[in-house]
Specification:
By secondary structure, the chain is mainly α. Helix content is 60%, strand content 0%. The chain contains six helices and no strands. It has helices spanning 7-29, 58-76, 83-92, 104-112, 115-150, 153-166. The radius of gyration is 28 Å and the shape is elongated.
Length: 184
């Protein structure tokens, strides 16, 4: 038996398979997004990620920070004598402003660099950003210590309880307090 190879039929089958694969990929790419959680009666999104969108909206983020600070101030019952330390503390706790986007001129200069030069430039920029973040964290730490020093022992207990509740990252994956619990 002789096998006859039909080149046109094979090419047509290959083209058809490619078109079907492309159409399938296009349909998958246009699948509707998963529905978002409906807001609760308080106007907040429901679910485990509530408040996450505020991180992307500076106005909402600022409102959340102001609300949290007002609640903490009320719980601590800050006195007029403590007001200066409280003001320094809240100022230090403000999120840093995001750096400006590179100008078209800066971007053009970056694009002229070779790959190794771009890597070195990005490393330099990252080191600068890390130094800025470290300085901001130090400033926050010193402001927190200064406020804590003027609080009464009762206020210190309240402050400690509030900060344990929120943790360094508000209970996220890295916000479990940093160290593993010690076994006795």
């Amino acid at each position: 038996m002789k096998f006859a190879f039909n080149r046109t039929a094979s090419l047509n089958s290959l083209i058809l398979a490619g078109l079907l694969a492309t159409a399938g990929a296009g349909a998958m790419a246009q699948a509707p997004a998963a529905p978002t959680a409906a807001p609760t009666a308080a106007g907040k999104p429901a679910g485990p990620h509530e408040g996450r969108m505020a991180r992307h909206d500076p106005a909402k983020m600022q409102a959340m920070i102001a609300k949290h600070q007002a609640e903490l101030k009320a719980k601590l019952k800050i006195t007029p004598a403590q007001e200066g330390a409280w003001t320094s503390y809240t100022a230090a706790m403000q999120p840093p402003a995001h750096g400006a986007r590179p100008s078209p001129e800066q971007r053009a200069e970056f694009d002229k660099l070779t790959t190794p030069q771009r890597i070195d430039k990005m490393k330099e920029m990252r080191a600068q950003r890390m130094a800025e973040m470290s300085a901001a964290m130090d400033k926050r730490g010193e402001a927190t210590k200064a406020l804590y020093a003027v609080l009464t022992p009762e206020q210190q207990k309240t402050f400690d309880a509030e900060h344990k509740k929120h943790g360094p990252h508000h209970g996220g994956p890295r916000g479990q307090g940093g160290a593993a619990p010690q076994k006795g």
